[in-house]
Amino acid sequence: MLTQIAAKGGSMTPSELKRHVEEAVQRTPVIDIHTHLYPASFEELCLWGIDELLTYHYLVAELFRSSDVKPSDFRALSKSQQADLIWDALFVKNTPLSEATAGVVAVMTRLGLDPARPDLREARDYFASLDLERHVARVIELAQVSELVMTNDPFHARERKLWEQNALCPPRFRAALRLDPLLNDWDAAEAAMAAQGYNVYEQLSPVTLRETRRFLDNWIRLLRPVYLAASLPFDFTYPNDSPRTLLLREAVFPTCREHRLPFATMIGVARGANPELGDAGDSLGQADTKAVERIALENPEVRFLVTLLARENQHALCVAARKFRNLMPFGCWWFLNNPSIVKEITRERLEMLGASFIPQHSDARILEQLIYKWVHARRTVSQALCDSYERLVSDGYRLTRQQIDGDVQRLFSGNFQNWVGLTNQGR
């Protein structure tokens, strides 16, 4: 039986501890440090509504497990027909037990929709009646997100045009400069940069590297990002004789140092494990965490945000973070975003790093996903914190409510604000 827990003006019983942790987690706004969301002003890049929710690739992959539908036949359907098919297969004929389907249920419930309807007429009527800008604001409020960080790709023609036209971005939306083509497909990146007027060539000569730095400098001035970022494959190694290593060493990391911007990397994807499924066919692999350590060691003045996709990598990432103060683990990404695994990883990080990490990000691509990602994340983080606090108190520590509130604020926003210098950045 736990001892009572000291608090200002009295003490907390074990049940009061649990209640206070849950209340602190529920009421504390969060900065969502990695999303693929856009404001309404970005037009077709802002994905929202029931058809987009249901045709997200998580649910598409489940459809093929729960029906006889062939991928080629599915792709021939309109988006609304695809959504109808997924609704019937995963929500009507089957119980929505998976995290992705339960997420849709959570979204619909919080928007006042019935997730047990036999069809999508009510949901479609509801979304058709909405003003998008007001809906975006409401979703952000429901998720209790104070700010969110987008994923902004200067190689994406439509997005590039919007930024060059000075598209308005609401204060709650922060930019992140995404560099996947630059680091994962130099031939395509070189062609795109040359088309934008940069003097770059296939060979990574000193001139090409200088022009790449100029490209990055110009996009930093345009976007004012809170960090630079790239998703890297599971077999990423560093250093080696690849263009990626040279670009990181001679362009990306020096740019981070000059502009005092962190570099965020998400490592572990195995693209096209089943090409027939398209986006739903990607898988994962175990990454080389020694590559992360070598990067952190070689660049002590650069701050790194790191998340790894394989569950098997999580302990090594915690160990690396204990050795390198310029390394910040964040989130439970993609295939890890299941409550049982999130709780396990969060507890492991609390046990090894205290509160010096960022427990979760939404990775939301569809606006309304923001709701369920944070409803579920708050529930799971609360459980992990309760477990840690109960263990601490059973060892005789006198815990206060103020400490709990401070820990939650640090995990949900403070660590990220300090890491990226967000409080010092103007808009």
In short:
It is built from 18 helices and 11 strands. The longest helix has 26 residues, at 369-394.
Instruction: Name the CATH homologous superfamily of the largest domain.
Output: Metal-dependent hydrolases
- Overall shape: it is globular
Main β-sheet: number of strands, strand sense, barrel status? 6 strands, mixed
Amount of helix: 40-55%
What class, by secondary structure content?
A: alpha/beta
What is the CATH third-level topology name of the largest domain?
TIM Barrel
What kind of assembly state do the chains in view correspond to?
single chain
Distance between the termini: 51 Å
Using only CA atoms, what is the Rg?
Answer: 22 Å
- Tell me, rounded to a whole number, the average pLDDT: 94
Order of helices and strands: EEHEHHHHHHHEHEEHHHEHEEHEHEHHH
Strand proportion, as a percent range, falls in: 5-15%
Estimate nothing, just give the exact number of structural domains.
2
Instruction: Give the low-pLDDT segments.
Output: 6-10
- Which CATH class of the largest domain? Alpha Beta
Number of helices: 18
Q: Would you mind describing this structure in some detail?
A:
With about 425 residues, this protein is α/β, with parallel strands linked by helices. The protein has 2 domains: about 5-35 and about 145-420, TIM Barrel (Alpha-Beta Barrel); about 50-125, Orthogonal Bundle (uronate isomerase, domain 2, chain A). It is built from 18 helices and 11 strands. Strands 6, 7, 8, 9, 10 and 11 form a 6-stranded mixed sheet that branches. The chain has a 3-stranded parallel sheet with strand order 3-4-5. Strand 1 and strand 2 (about 10) form a beta hairpin. It is globular. The N and C termini lie far apart (about 50 Å). The relative contact order is 0.15.
